[in-house]
Design a protein that fits this description.
Blueprint lengths: L15 H12 L6 E5 L6 E5 L8 E6 L2 H9 L3 E6 L2 E5 L9 E7 L1
Antiparallel strand pairs: 1-6, 2-5, 3-6, 4-5
C-alpha cells in the first residue's frame, strides 16, 4: 500500500505560505517518497504501483518484519523491473504473508 497523504503545490505555483511549507518539509527530510509493500505469497513476483516511480528511479528497501529481513538476507530478492508508475520485485516463492518492507523512491 502506498500512502499519498501529502499536498503538492499547484502547477501554476502556490501561495508564499504553501511554498515555504513545502520547502521547510523538504529541509526536514519529509520528501514523501516512501511507501510500504508486502511481498505476494505463493508467487515469485510482486508489482507495486506508485506514481512517483520512473524508469530510472532508485528504490531502496528496509525490512520491517523478521521474514522480510530473512528474505533480504537470503539474497534472492531484487528489483527486476521499473517503469513509469510501477516497479516489480522478484523474490522467493513461499507462503509467508508477512514479508513487509518500507521503501523509498529516489529520482
Amino acid at each position: 500500500m502506498v500512502d499519498f497523504n501529502f499536498k503538492k503545490l499547484p502547477l501554476n505555483g502556490g501561495s508564499p505560505r504553501e511554498v515555504s511549507t513545502a520547502v521547510n518539509l523538504l529541509i526536514d527530510g519529509k520528501h514523501n517518497a516512501k511507501g510500504s509493500v508486502t511481498l505476494t505469497a505463493s508467487t515469485t513476483t510482486t508489482t507495486v504501483t506508485d506514481v512517483r516511480v520512473g524508469e530510472d528511479s532508485v528504490i531502496l528497501f528496509v525490512p520491517i518484519t523478521a521474514n522480510a529481513s530473512a528474505e533480504l538476507g537470503a539474497g534472492g530478492m531484487f528489483l527486476s523491473s521499473r517503469a513509469n508508475n510501477s516497479f516489480t520485485i522478484t523474490h522467493a516463492n513461499n507462503s509467508q504473508t508477512d514479508r513487509t518492507f518500507l521503501y523509498t523512491v529516489n529520482g
